[in-house]
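Bug: C-alpha cell stream looks shifted between consecutive jobs. Job 1:
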Amino acid sequence: MAKAALIVVDVQRDFCEGGALAAADTFSLLGPLQECIEAARRAKAAIVYTKDWHPEDHISFQAKGGPWPVHCAAGSSGAELIPPLQAERDEIVIHKGVHPHRAGYSGFELTGLEHRLRELQAERVGISGIATEYCVRATALDGLRHGFEVTVLTDLIRAVQPKETPKILEELRNAGAKTATAAEWLESL
C-alpha cells in the first residue's frame, strides 16, 4: 500500500468563526478533524498543516488592491492553528502565501511541499480544511498536477460559500481527484 499523507489546509484562527476572513461552520470541523488526525497518526500517515502566512504588504489584501481583508499576517495570532489543532514535532508545517506578489492559495505553491512528500515516499494525499473553493481546491488541483493520488475528505472541508461546494467537488472529481469521507479514507490506509 502506498504511503499516505493527510494535508490539513489553513485551519487557522482567521479562517474560523470570529476571524478576519471566516468560512462557514468551521467550529463543527474541529472535533472530527482532530479525530481524523489522531487516526492518521496511528496509521503512520504523514501529517501536513498548511498555514497562510502573509507579509503585511501581501497582494491579496484590500489595501494593496486585492479582494481580502488583512488575514493570517505572518506571526499574528490569526495565523495560528486553531485549538485543538497542534502540530507534533515530527509533523510538517508549511507556510504559504509568503511572497508579497503571489496569491499562494495552494499548499504546493513555492513551499517545497512536493519535495517533502516525495522524501516521505507519500503517493496518496487526503485533503481537508478551509476554504473549499479557494485553498482546498488549489491544493487538490496542484496535488494532482504533481502526480499524487488525491482524495478530498468531504466531511472535513468548509467553504466560505457552502452552496459552491458541490460544484467545486465536481470540478475536482473531473480533474481526477477522489472524494470520500474521512472514515472511508482512513479505512483505505
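Job 2, same session, no restart:
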Amino acid sequence: MAITLGEDFLTVAEAANLVHVSQSTIWRWINSKELPAYRLGPRRIRVKVSDLAPLLRPARPEKEELVADRRDTLTANEREQLSAAIMEANRFRATLLARRDGKPFEPAWQAIDRTRDERSLDRA
C-alpha cells in the first residue's frame, strides 16, 4: 500500500475531536480494523482524514432501501414457504380460538401479573 505524505494525518485525539467521539471509540475502530491506522516511528499512531469519511453514514437507511433489502433477502421458494407457514399459523390460531369458544388468550403481561400475585399469596 503506497502512502503519500501530502495527505492529512491526525493523532487519535485529533481524529476523535474531528468526528466528536471519544478516543476509546477511535481505538476500538482501529482495533476492529474499521479504521486504518499508520505507525510513525515506534510509538506514534496516525489516522488519515480521508479514512474517517467512510465511517460516517446515515443512521437510518431511506425507506426505499429498506423495501429493496427485504425483497432481496428471500428467494421465491422461501417466500412461498413463509406464506405457507403464516397460513398454517393462522389456521392453528383459528383452531385454538374455536376450542376456547372464540375467547382469546389473555395478554402475557396479565398472565405474568396473575402468576406473580398467586405466588405472593402462597408465600404469605
